[in-house]
Amino acid sequence: MKQVDLGTEFRMKKIDSRSVVIGFLVAVIGFMSMGATNSTFDSITVGEIILKDESLWIVDKEKREILNIAGANDIHALLLYNTEGTPIAAMSQGDDGAGAISVFNDKRKEVVRLSVTSEIDGYIGLFDRYGDLQWGMTGKRK
After folding, report:
1. What pTM value is reported for the model?
2. CATH numbers and ranges of domains, the chain
3. Radius of gyration from C-alpha coordinates of the chain
């Protein structure tokens, strides 16, 4: 059986500065990747947002809805929610593609509507607490 002199066979070589720099950079990358799992941003700048699903939700730290941007084939809407998760305001399109703004009470009933009529005139509607129309007027001259 052949005997091996471990003192000369596995002797450590000199460490050069290039190896030290590479080792340091590998350690820095490792520490950065471990810390990147729980990141927060102060601001986000984008040129375009494409919805992956039919809506985009913005929530607070407690995961309560604040804002919903909906973009389906037949409707586009922006809904604002109160702290209880009830919608309080909406900007949307009507059946004909014209815009509408609605305000809701805490029972989810529409109480104010600003919209466009089928004749492309402006419309204001006031509803009672149950969502029944009490007063409405168009901008059409008689």
Report:
1. 0.61
2. 6-38 (no CATH), 55-138 (3.90.930.1)
3. 31
